[in-house]
Every structure is written in structure tokens, then in C-alpha cells.
Amino acid sequence: MRLTLVFRWFLLLGLMPGGVGTASAVDARVQNIRLGASEGATRLVLEMSERVDFKVFSLDAPRRIVLDLPSLDWPDVNASPEPKGLISGLRFGQFTATQSRLVIDLNTPAIVSRSFVLDPASGFPHRLVVDLKTSSAENFAKQVAADRTAKRAKAPAPSAPPEILQAPRKPNRKPVIVVDAGHGGVDPGASGRKAREKQVTLAFSKELARQLRNTGKYDVYLTRSRDIYIPLRQRVNIARKHQADLFMSIHADAIKRKNVRGMSIYTLSETASDKEAEALARKENRSDIIVGIDFDDQPPEVADILIDLAQRETKNLSVKFANLVVKNARGTTRLLERTHRFAGFRVLKAPDVPSVLIELGFLTNRSDEKQLLSAGWRRKIAKSLVKSVNGFFSSSQQARMTQ
């Protein structure tokens, strides 16, 4: 009886087993994503414009299956199918400049029983198929260990950790500002009714960078200028590579209480100002984990060692800028109560770069979401931030830093 049900399930999805392709494609398009579930099994289908190579591996904490593919044109995040069966959620998008990634969140231990590619047939295009079946926690852990061992065997020898100390700043140079659009690619961030955080942050970051450059006073860099995932540590390294004098990470929040709204700003502290700030930092710091980065053999964050030694002055400057942001934003947009907060955000841990994380508003609040999607609102808030930047760098203390 069960075999008959599974066979009908295969037919319903328009699939019959076939051979696995080996040719890779560039700029192939994912036309559709489908899920089908039966007792103890779930099938994921990517309908593709071309045949592509792929790799599958498992990770735990949390349990998930990761599918690595070449650079692809993905459908809108809203096109993701409703979770079903063994799958509790899907995230997909650009992971590196040449690689896409799909992350399958599991609501119970499960392993990949089969993965293969089907050629076009019966009106269906190329299809990449991943079959999952239930597993014990012990067998899932064994699969994670086996995948990790295989990955290490293929990985190049690790290089020496990069030197974290900056070279001396050039005299009489323009202040350098790095604007970080939060999330991106395979990591969509928070969700609203119409918008995703990664889209909102990129649009705002581009507007802010445009206005800053138009002053002629600053050299401005973006951590990302398109829909691509950037690991948290790399965002910090980009700021340090450019010898930044100020780092602004742009985000938008989501919360169960839909009446909560308003802009807020965060600076670094290992002790959170409140439970909400602590929860937000914990959520943001998990960004690298949920997109499928395996930290098992990663070296510790070298910068953490120097935080207590080198970051006291940096923290003070970060707080000074945050206070200016609150002052100039007041009366321009709705502010969250206790607007300036602090917590242990990993993205703010450059020991020698004043850094803030700005939450523009709440995507879960209809009024905030409407503002976040408004080009006029973006211009207005970016203008207030430029005013804060001008005030920050006009002080005599900042002038001494750049001499």
C-alpha cells in the first residue's frame, strides 16, 4: 500500500527517476520550486532552465540540508512553497560571486536518500530532485560527520590567519565610511507582508552611500551592492581593509507584536541593555549559521582577543555617533522607545572602527513597512544620517584621527 502511495506521489509531481547530470550551467534559471510529502518522506524539486551540477551535505545545530549550486537566477523569495513534511523552511539565493545555495531547514532528523537530475519530459523542464527520509538523531549525526570529513578531504590546506592590525592611516585623506546592507542572497533576513529585509537594507544603503558621496567629503564603500550573501566576519574585514573611520550596518527588524514600530540604533557591548537587544543580537549573530556555514574547523575570531585591549576608545566614538543619529532623527521619523541600545553584535566587533547597527524600523508593522518601501522616506532618513556623519567628523577629536 505504501509503495502505491509513493508511486502516486511521484506521478503527482511529474517525476520518474532518471540519470544524474554532470554538466554545469552558468546563469541557469530556477523556474519553480515544489515540495511533495508522504509518510516519512519529502521530495524537493527545482525546475530548471538548464542542467546543473550540485553538491548536497548535512549540518546540525540547527539540523539542515544544504544544496550548493552554480550561480543561478532564483525566483522571488515570496515564491518559496509552504513548508511541508520533513521540511520546516527554505532559504535560497546567491552565496558567493560564483555559487548559489539552498538551505533546507528540517523539523526532525532526516537524511538525503537520493538526489538526481531529470531531463525534460512530459512538459516538465530539467528537474533537480532531492528525496529526504526520516532518520534517527544518531544516524543524522553520523551523516553530518561523514559529510564534514568528505568536505575536509577536498578542502585546500588552511592559510595563516590574516594580520588584523591596520597600517597607519594616510595623512590628510578623506574619512572612509563603510555602509553595510544587512543580510542578502541566501539569507533574506526578516519578512514583512510585502518586503524582505535584504531588499530594504540594500535600497537604503545605496541611497545613503549616494548622499554621502555627493557631499564630496568622504570615501564611501558598500559591503554589498547586489543581492549576495556576505558572512558577518567578512563584513567586518571589509571595513578594516578600507581602513574605515566609521561603519554603519543597516537592518530592519521583525517582531511578534505588530504594533511595535520605530527606528533604533545599537552599539557594541558584551552586556545587553535589555532583553530585546539581547534577543536581536542573538538572532543577527546566527546569520552565518542558518545559511549553512560550518564553524567546526574555523579559527576563533582573532579580533575578539583584542576587544578589551583596543576597543575602549572605539566604543566611545561609536556611542558618540549613535547619540548624534538619535538627535538628528528625532522629529524626522518615529523612534523606538529607548532608541539607543547596545548588545554583543558580531558585525560591530572591529576593534579599531567605530561601528553602529541601525534598525530602520519593523517590517511586521504596516506603517513602518510602508515607510521602508518608500523612496521619499529613504531619502529623508539618509539625509538625517548624513547630517550625523558631518557632525561626527567635524569634531576636533575626529579631525585628529585622520591626520
Short description:
The chain has 11 helices and 15 strands.
Explain what this protein looks like in three dimensions:
The structure is a single chain. By secondary structure, the protein is α/β, with parallel strands linked by helices. 33% of the residues lie in helices and 27% in strands. The chain is built from eleven helices and 15 strands. It has helices spanning 2-12, 137-154, 197-214, 232-241, 275-285, 287-290, 302-310, 312-329, 366-372, 375-394, 396-401, and strands at 28-38, 41-48, 55-59, 64-70, 72-73, 87-94, 99-106, 110-118, 126-134, 176-181, 219-222, 246-253, 263-268, 335-343, 355-362. It has a six-stranded mixed sheet, with helices on both faces. A hairpin with a 4-residue loop joins β6 (87-94) and β7. The radius of gyration is 23 Å and the shape is elongated. The relative contact order is 0.12.
What features would you highlight for this structure?
five-stranded mixed beta sheet; six-stranded mixed beta sheet; 11 helices; disordered N terminus; 15 strands; alpha/beta; elongated; 403 residues
